[in-house]
Design a protein that fits this description.
With 279 residues, this protein is of the alpha/beta class. It is built from 14 helices and six strands. It has one domain: Rossmann fold, CATH 3.40.50.
């Protein structure tokens, strides 16, 4: 009976009830392009926050550029902390971070361990390998279709609207400046030495066909986590939250809510998770 009750609550969650916060931290792709296959699903279970810290043609970023201040990882960490401290205020937080966002998530979790519940890193950069960044060449050549396709193992997973969006933005000089300043300010930053300091339970996910961040280096970095779990997804590139969204959506829910989370849950554990309740 309990299993059926849990399933009904999952399918028809209560209209009111505070849920645990889930904070999404994007990589070089802006927030809507990073999480369009995930946010609605996770909203069934969590209070989802998707702060637009990186808006490449936004006033905030360009005021900083005009003041000759760097767009670096420290700046991004400070921005996320300010957002959490001022506009969420319901710790502890669950973090899901992709690519460059992995650097931000690791730094947040190490600097403010009392604020963090659990962390999921999706193809995180900054693990100590030499990252391949086709985005830089693509932006300069105004060839964003090739850039977007380099992220995916199978081109059929590339959403045409994403390609259309980036084709439009590549002609926006202000947007291009913001993107290139962010790349230049963050590309050399590594968090490999911080992995051993990350106390929150952490799941590191890589795609076996990731051509941007080395999957082998990701696996080695995961071994250094004190409470770490690791999953390599076969036939997946640099954006598992899009290319393998069915799995990632449910895996994140399991990892954030289970009493004893694992990187390899049974299918029943994936399907029967209940919406969270904030304490």
């Amino acid at each position: 009976m309990a299993a059926w009750t849990d399933l009904l609550e999952r399918l028809r969650p209560k209209a009111y009830g505070r849920r645990q916060p889930l904070i999404l931290i994007n990589g070089l792709a802006e927030q809507p392009e990073s999480w369009f296959r995930n946010r609605r699903f996770w909203s069934r279970y969590f209070d989802v926050h998707m702060p637009n810290i990186l808006v490449y043609d936004g006033d905030c970023l360009h005021r900083r550029i005009a003041a000759k201040q760097p767009i670096d990882v420290d700046y991004l960490v400070d921005q996320f902390y300010t957002y959490l401290d001022h506009f969420v205020q319901t710790p502890p937080y669950n973090l899901v971070a992709s690519s460059l966002g992995g650097k931000v998530a690791v730094e947040l979790a190490v600097r403010y361990p009392q604020l963090i519940h659990r962390v999921v890193l999706l193809c995180p950069s900054g693990m100590g390998d030499e990252e391949q960044l086709p985005v830089m060449a693509g932006v300069r050549r105004q060839d964003m279709q090739t850039v977007v396709r380099s992220v995916f193992h199978k081109p059929r997973f590339v959403d045409r609207d994403i390609v259309k969006y980036y084709k439009q933005q590549i002609n926006n000089r202000r947007w291009k400046t913001g993107l290139l300043r962010t790349i230049n300010g963050t590309k050399e930053y590594t968090v490999r030495d911080k992995m051993k300091l990350l106390q929150a339970p952490t799941l590191l996910v890589t795609g076996t066909e990731d051509r941007i961040c080395d999957p082998k280096t990701a696996e080695e970095a995961a071994r250094e986590l004190p409470a770490g779990h690791f999953l390599a997804i076969p036939g997946c590139g640099h954006a598992p939250q899009i290319e393998k969204h069915w799995l990632i959506n449910r895996l994140v829910v399991h990892f954030m809510t289970a009493a004893q989370p694992t990187a390899h849950p049974k299918w029943t554990q994936l399907l029967l998770a209940k919406p969270t309740r904030a304490e």
